[in-house]
Amino acid sequence: MNNKNTILLIIGLLLIGCTATVNKSIYIEDGQTKEGDINTVNGAIIIGENCKVFGNSRAVNGHIEVGKGSLVEGLTTVNGSISIARQCSVTNDIRSINGRIDTEMETKIDGRVSTINGDIEFKGTHILRDVETINGDLYLKAGSVVEGNIIVEDKGHFSDDEKHRIDIYIMQESLVKGDVRVENKNAVVELHLSENSKVLGDIINAEIIYENN
Fold this sequence. Notes:
Order of helices and strands: HEEEEEEEEEEEEEEEEEEEEEEEEEEEEE
Helix content: under 10%
Distance between the termini: 42 Å
Largest sheet: 10 strands, parallel
Strand order of the largest sheet: 1-4-7-10-13-16-19-22-25-28
Strand content: over 45%
Shape: globular
Structural class: mainly beta
Number of domains: 1
Mean pLDDT: 90
C-alpha cells in the first residue's frame, strides 16, 4: 500500500469512529481518565499531566501532545508531530507519517516507534521494541535505550539514482541492544556514535562516525 492510500485509509477509519471529531481539537484535562479511542481530523489532541487514556489516539492534520506522568496507548499522526513529556508510559506503537516524534526523560514505550518523513528524538527514554524510519534522522540522547533494532526501511518511493541522506546519532550513554540495519539501498546513512554509547548488535550498511562525548 502506498503512502497516499495509507493516509486515505487512516482518515476513513477516523471518520467512522464514534469518538471522531472534524475541525476540532480534543483536550484531556490534567488527571482525567479516558476510556476508548480519541480520533480527530484537522485538529490536535492535547493530553494533560497525569492522565490515563485507555485507547488509541489518532490525528490527521494535527499534532499530539502528552503531558508529564501520563499513561497512554497507541499514538498516530498523519501530517502532525508527536511530543511526549517526562515520566510517561506508552503501551502501544507510536507512528507518524509526516511529522516529528519527541520524547522526554524517564518515558517508557512498550511498542514500536516509526516515521515515514520525520525526525525522531529520544531523551532518557526506554523503547522495548524496534525504531523504524524511511526518511528521517534519529537522535538517542541522555541514556536512551532501544531494546530492539533501529531499521531504515526500504519502503520509500525513490529512483535508483536518487540518494537521500539519513543521520543516526547515538550519544550521551545511550544504548541499542539490537542491530542498526539499513535496508534501503538508496539511503546514505551515517551513524554518529559517541565514545560512551554502544550498539550491541551488528551495524549493517551504515558508515560509523565516532564522536567525542
